[in-house]
């Protein structure tokens, strides 16, 4: 599939009116090991549940599946529990539980199912006898489908034959065994017993996605098992296509950062084990679910700053409103504005790298920043009421607010005022260090308290700057900007209604805009 086609399918998977039948909310009561009332909502046709081993992902998935089948269950595995569902039709109207076609609710564990199939076939004396009288299904033999499956597996198929074998397991009569015979473009022929586990799993999942009915609800256990990162990502793209084209509503479990990266943050749920039982949370940032997978988040970009004071100022600003950004982008001091300018002017990659750069100048470099906005590296300036460098900005704030700052540091305000008065004529790079040494406190702590107080007094300017950094680079939809403001409000525990109003008043006919922060404040450009 082409990149544009893949993006379209993922976008449509989030457009709920594309689906005739949706599982939107559910609450499980008294499921063993979980909170007594365990509930969550589903906002897309593909939702992923992740968490550490043993936390209960499989238990939850099977409990929901069996609840949809029976609604009330008393089993040795789960205990006696009930499930309440909110089901909707295409128009968003609630649907009665009784209207579910239980035959359209499916659960698969691809790795477990393929292991079961292979174990049975390897102990069968004559597989060919099983195939006698069974016509092969052409479901995967369409040229387009063969090409897509071949792309996932990494092979070029000339033919894919599927023989659907029924009633091989007396204790599970509904379990169908697909037996695959394939021919590659080079003429090599082999079958399910001779292919690798990863290839068998890919073919099994592809077959199952085409075998189920339209408008199905599908539960998939650890879709990534035995698959390379390459195959995982392409298989998830294929799942998005089938979900949209066949109106399938999917809930999956996964340990894979590649699978979760495809599903996206908004449609990932994390299981957490608490004293009261397992609960489910919607992570605010990728680092939250990566931690549960035992993966350390990697920096995906850098923010270039002039010196240590600019770096400290920027760090405190980001930490107040969007600390997750500090996990995505590292702060880099480049030792002066001229060094940042060189990077901006000469950084012209032939292909967009995975590592993004943002150039942040001191506010006294306002004119220079304006002259650099046409280059590929996004530029911004630190906030300042009067276009000062951060050293001067923080000094002016200390002079004006020394009484509050001395109180926060438990200092005698007259002593602090005296030190300010004595050192006013000193070089602006050294004044805070000299005073902190006299007070016998670290300059980092002294500066951090001044910055904290500055942010309290200049809340909207600070928030505008962090919003611009959080949305820097690519064009972004207005709805995503509003969502980012909501996250910032939650992180900082403040009301940013005036910032929200500024953004909403700048609605444009085009869907996406670019944000940057210059001396004049937040800039929203079409």
| Main sheet specs | 6 strands, mixed
Question: What is the global morphology?
Answer: elongated
Hey, roughly how much beta strand do the residues contain? 15-25%
Helical coverage, percent range: 40-55%
Tell me the strand order in the biggest sheet: 7-11-12-3-13-14
Could you name the CATH homologous superfamily of the largest domain? P-loop containing nucleotide triphosphate hydrolases
> Might you state the CATH topology name of the largest domain?
Rossmann fold
The end-to-end distance, rounded to whole angstroms, is: 30 Å
The number of helices is 21
Q: What is the name of the CATH architecture of the largest domain?
A: 3-Layer(aba) Sandwich
Q: Indicate the CATH class of the largest domain.
A: Alpha Beta
Q: What structural class is derived from the secondary structure elements?
A: alpha/beta
- In the residues, how many domains can be counted? 4
Annotation, overall tally of beta strands: 21
Low-confidence stretches: none
**Global Rg:** 29 Å
């Amino acid at each position: 599939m082409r990149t544009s086609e893949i993006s379209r399918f993922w976008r449509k998977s989030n457009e709920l009116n594309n689906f005739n039948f949706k599982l939107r909310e559910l609450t499980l009561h008294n499921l063993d090991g979980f909170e007594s009332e365990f509930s969550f909502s589903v906002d897309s046709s593909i939702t992923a549940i992740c968490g550490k081993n043993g936390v209960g992902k499989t238990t939850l998935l099977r409990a929901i599946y069996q609840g949809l089948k029976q609604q009330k269950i008393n089993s040795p595995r789960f205990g006696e529990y009930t499930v309440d569902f909110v089901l909707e039709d295409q128009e968003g109207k609630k649907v009665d539980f009784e209207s579910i076609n239980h035959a359209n609710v499916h659960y698969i564990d691809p790795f477990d199912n393929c292991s079961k199939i292979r174990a049975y076939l390897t102990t069968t004396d004559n597989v060919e006898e099983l195939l006698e009288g069974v016509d092969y299904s052409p479901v995967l033999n369409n040229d387009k489908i063969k090409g897509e499956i071949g792309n996932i597996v990494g092979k070029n198929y000339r033919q894919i034959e599927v023989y659907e074998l029924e009633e091989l397991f007396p204790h599970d009569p509904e379990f169908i065994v697909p037996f695959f015979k394939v021919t590659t473009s080079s003429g090599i022929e082999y079958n399910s017993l001779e292919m690798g586990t990863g290839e068998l799993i890919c073919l099994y999942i592809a077959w199952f996605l085409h075998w189920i009915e339209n408008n199905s609800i599908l539960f998939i256990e650890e879709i990534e098992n035995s698959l390379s990162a390459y195959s995982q990502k392409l298989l998830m793209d294929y799942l998005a296509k089938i979900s949209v084209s066949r109106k399938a509503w999917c809930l999956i479990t996964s340990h894979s950062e590649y699978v979760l990266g495809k599903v996206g943050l908004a449609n990932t749920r994390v299981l957490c084990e608490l004293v009261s039982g397992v609960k489910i949370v919607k992570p605010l940032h990728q680092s939250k679910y990566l931690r549960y997978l035992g993966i350390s988040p990697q920096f995906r970009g850098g923010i270039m700053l002039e010196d240590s004071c600019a770096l400290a100022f920027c760090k405190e600003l980001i930490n107040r409103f969007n600390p997750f950004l500090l996990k995505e982008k590292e702060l880099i001091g480049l030792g002066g504005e001229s060094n940042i300018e060189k990077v901006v002017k000469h950084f012209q990659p032939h292909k967009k790298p995975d590592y993004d750069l943002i150039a942040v100048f001191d506010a006294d470099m306002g004119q220079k920043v304006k002259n650099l906005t046409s280059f590929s590296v996004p530029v911004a300036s630190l906030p300042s009421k009067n276009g000062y460098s951060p050293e001067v900005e923080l000094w002016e704030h200390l002079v004006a607010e020394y009484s509050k700052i001395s109180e926060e540091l438990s200092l005698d305000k007259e002593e602090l005022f005296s030190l300010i008065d004595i050192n006013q004529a000193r070089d602006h790079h050294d004044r805070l260090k000299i005073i902190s040494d006299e007070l016998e406190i670290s300059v980092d702590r002294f500066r951090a308290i001044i910055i904290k107080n500055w942010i309290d007094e200049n809340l909207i300017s600070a928030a505008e700057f962090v919003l611009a950094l959080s949305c820097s680079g690519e064009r972004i939809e207005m709805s995503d900007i509003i969502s980012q403001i909501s996250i910032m409000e939650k992180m900082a525990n403040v009301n940013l209604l005036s910032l929200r109003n500024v953004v909403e008043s700048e609605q444009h006919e085009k869907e996406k805009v670019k944000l940057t922060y210059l001396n004049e404040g937040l800039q929203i450009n079409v």
